[in-house]
Amino acid sequence: MAANLAVALARLGKRVVAVDCDLEGANLHTSLGVRTPQTSLADFVSQRQEDLGKLVVDTATPGLRLIAGTHAHLGDAQPNHLRRVRLMRALRRLDADYVIADLGAGTHSSVLDYFLVGGEGMIVLQPEPTSVENAYTFIRAAFYRRMRLAMVGHGVRKLVTEAMDQRNERGIRNPIDLLREIESIDPQEGARFVETMRAFRPSIIVNGVRTAEDVKLGFAVGSVCRKYFGIEAEYLGYVNYDEAARRSVAARRPVVDGESGSDAAIYLQRIARKLIGRQA
Amino acid sequence: MKTLEVQNHYEVLEVPPGARLDEIERAYRLAATTWSEGSLALYSLFDDRDASLVRERIDKAYSVLSDEGSRRAYDSATFDELPQPPPEPASAVPAAELSTLEEEYDDMEISLDSALEGKVEGVEGEAGESEYDGARLRRARMHRGIELDEIGQVTKVTLTYLQAIEDEAFESLPAPVYVRGFVTAYARAIGLDPERVAKSFMPRFEEARTGKGRGRLLGRR
Q: Are residues A7 and A99 both part of a single domain?
């Protein structure tokens, strides 16, 4: 998805840098058809290179460059807080119209931080229970982490931490319960909570769509997020299950590049256009 | 943030106050599916007891807002100023104003309305010069949230033929006179201009059938 969106944006004339932040399972370079680069994000994380711009390599697509995630050592994937902050600052300073960061799976704090620092956090899910569960687990973790960082008072922060445990003793079952508790302790923090919540707007992409019912899943997930978290999760688009996508992976070439007339490519290009339209 | 208990009926159905009746009906259909028992979108977040509370609230909101009299009474009791209906939807944009390049994008733009509504009224972005092949018909159908068997039920065309149209498995289709009927029925069922679709699709089919472009067309599969 990251590789295809990056190529689609570049083909629409944008200057794009794709960054493989998944240092434990780096493969963005393969998806983009780039032979294992010698420089990588791991060089920045392990402080071998302080200038992120020097780690950028060209790809076959004009306008698209890459920072690979190859050659990482054990521990690079979860850099300490200070290093993470530096990386996030450096990502923001990259010379590009769009920086597409491909994140690893799971809900480790580094993944959540990379997700939260981006202007547009996108969550890709498939129309199957395991994937929907993973998506909600991720949204939940990112949501509570964002809220905890926004709260000032120690007592309220502690409360958010407690709420993250779904079996907490206070009986806080969802963000609405949590908000009620916060408001009862500190109305000002309650107002801050609501304000932060409004700014937390992840996007949803449904991948591997086979039926019209699958297409509607994005709307349904948006509605569930609204009612459960009180957040707006925009449905950015869907991509069908397509043999062309499978062939492209085997050919190590993004489907929007190799099979640009396929349904999958058309859907991906539409998502890219929508992203550009949203920035305009 | 308002909890479900204190949300007004419009907020529960996620429509603006003053929404048209058809918008309310569409929103209700989506909500009913989303919050139905065993719905995939609820998985791991809502158990059925909690979901049934939301369902009750949604049913209540719909029962009030779908009846003109009860809605009017509710509005005057809820709002100081009566809500105004929103402007007409943007589907009235003349198709000719959309460039061919933009066309597919506009056509495919996701909207709650079109994803829930079987038929799309008015002029749409599909007009113009680009070709209606099987893949494009399938994309248009998916975009409207319509399953192939629903088209089968409406048109009485067998699923095998409908699938063959989308897949452009021309060798599996009967004589052109029948296929034209199937294609126009398909187009009508998803709210496209049947004539325009047939005019675009039939030459592809006939070309493949006469063998002229057989290699090219079969090569697409």
A: yes
How distant is the Cα of A4 from the closest Cα of chain B, in angstroms?
17
CATH for B93-219, options being 2.60.40.10, 1.20.1340.10, 1.10.260.40, 3.90.1150.10? 1.10.260.40
> In the CATH hierarchy, which fold is given to the domain comprising B9-78?
Helix Hairpins (1.10.287)
A229 touches chain B (CB under 8 A): no
Strand A57-58 to A64-67 pairing? antiparallel
Task: Please give the backbone phi and psi of residue A230, each rounded to the nearest 5 degrees, phi first.
Answer: 75, 25
Chain B residue nearest residue A133, CA to CA: B44
Neighbours of A48 (CB within 10 A): 11
- A125 shares a domain with A233: yes
Q: Which of A127, A224, A266 sits opposite B139 (nearest CB)?
A: A266
Domain count, chain A: 2
The answer to whether A250 and A30 are in contact (CB under 8 A) is no
Enclosing domain of residue A127: 121-241
- Which A-chain residues 131-190 have CB contacts (< 8 A) with chain B? 132-133, 136-137, 175-176, 179
- B209 min Cα distance to partner chain A (Å): 23
232-261 in A: which are within 8 Å (CB) of B? 235, 237-238, 240
Query: Per the domain annotation, does A246 fall within a domain?
Result: no
3-state secondary structure of A192: helix
Which residues does chain A have within 8 Å of residue B105's beta carbon, measured at their own beta carbons?
269-270, 273
pTM of the model: 0.82
State the Cα–Cα distance between residues B145 and B124, nearest whole angstrom. Answer: 16
Rounded to whole angstroms, how far apart are CA atoms B25 and B22?
5
Say whether A216 and B116 touch across the interface (CB within 8 A).
yes
Global ipTM? 0.87
Minimal Cα–Cα distance from A141 to chain B, Å? Answer: 13
Report the CATH number that the domain containing residue A11 is assigned in CATH. Answer: 3.40.50.300
Q: Which residues on adjacent β-strands are paired with residue A235?
A: A204
- CA A197, CA A233: separation in Å to the nearest integer? 11
| Predicted confidence pLDDT, tens digits, chain B (221 residues) | 677 878 999 999 999 998 999 999 999 999 999 999 999 999 999 988 999 999 999 999 999 999 999 999 999 999 888 777 766 544 333 333 333 333 343 444 444 444 444 333 333 333 344 689 999 999 999 988 899 999 999 999 999 999 999 999 999 999 999 999 999 999 999 999 999 999 999 999 999 988 754 444 554 44
Q: Is residue A232 a part of any domain in this protein?
A: yes
CB proximity A223 to B under 8 Å? yes
